[in-house]
Structure to design on (88 residues):
């Protein structure tokens, strides 16, 4: 199974609280336009640092952010035309 993993940067202010709030919100949400959360991981790494991640279904066509805000450098390197988002 191919999945998408969102690892939180716990060095950022409020990241741990954001993780808890996101888990609480996503456990009750069911919508056809949102990817499903498969599981959440809250642990400690081998150095004793907190580690938190969310495991989502993989979205084949990339993220909405990537469609709305394509990275110009990546497009030039890959020499592909920018994606066009439409209602279909």
């Amino acid at each position: 199974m191919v999945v998408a993993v969102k690892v939180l940067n716990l060095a950022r202010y409020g990241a741990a609280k954001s993780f808890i709030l996101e888990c609480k919100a996503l456990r009750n949400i069911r919508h056809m336009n949102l990817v499903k959360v498969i599981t959440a991981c809250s642990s400690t790494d081998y150095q004793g640092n907190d580690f938190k991640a969310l495991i989502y279904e993989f979205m084949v066509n990339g993220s909405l952010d990537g469609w709305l805000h394509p990275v110009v450098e990546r497009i030039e390197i890959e020499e592909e035309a920018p994606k066009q988002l439409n209602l279909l």
Q: What stands out?
A: The chain has a mean pLDDT of 78. The helical segments are 15-27, 64-68, 72-78.
